Amino acid sequence: LQALGDATHTGADLAGWTARIAAARSDLTRVLKAHGLVPLPSDAPWVLAAAPGDLRVALARHAVVVRDCRSFGLPDHVRIAVPDASGLQRLDAALARVGNVGDHDRP
Predict the structure, then answer these.
(1) Angstrom distance (rounded) from CA 74 to CA 84
(2) Tell me, what's the pLDDT at 37?
(3) In this predicted structure, which of 40-44, 89-93, 100-104 has the lowest mean pLDDT?
(4) What is the pLDDT of residue 63?
C-alpha cells in the first residue's frame, strides 16, 4: 500500500496505467486464444489459463517463464503476467514453436 500512496502523491497516472494494462491484457488473451488456450476473465495484471501440465516446461525451453498454479489448487492452469509488446511477441513465438497447446480436455 505504501507504493500506491507514493504513486498517488507523485502525480502517477493510475488511470492511464490501468488502461494500458487492460489493453495489454486483451492482447495477451487474444494471443493465448489463438494458440488454443482458454484464458479466464481477469482484471489483474496477469491471466490464468487452462493448460496442459507440460506447458510451463515447454515454454521455459524457449526462455518464457509462466507460473505453475498447483500451489493455488489449480493443477491444470498457468498464470501469465501481462507482458510488454516485446514479451508478447516472444510468448507468441514460443507458443507457435510449442504447437497447439490447447489440444487437451478443457474444463
Answers:
(1) 26
(2) 93
(3) 100-104
(4) 92
Q: What is the pLDDT of residue 14?
A: 87
CA 44/CA 106 separation, integer angstroms: 22
- Other C-beta atoms closer than 10 Å to the C-beta of 88 total 16
What is the mean pLDDT of the segment spanning 63-83? 92
Distances in whole angstroms, Cα of residue 107 to Cα of each of 6, 7, 76, 93: 41, 39, 9, 26
CA–CA separation, 18 and 23 (whole Å):
9
How far is CA 13 from each of CA 9, 24, 53, 96, rounded to the nearest angstrom? 11, 16, 39, 35
Q: Which of 35, 41, 37, 27 is nearest to 76 (CA)?
A: 37
Q: Write down the residue that cell numbers 503476467 correspond to.
A: 81
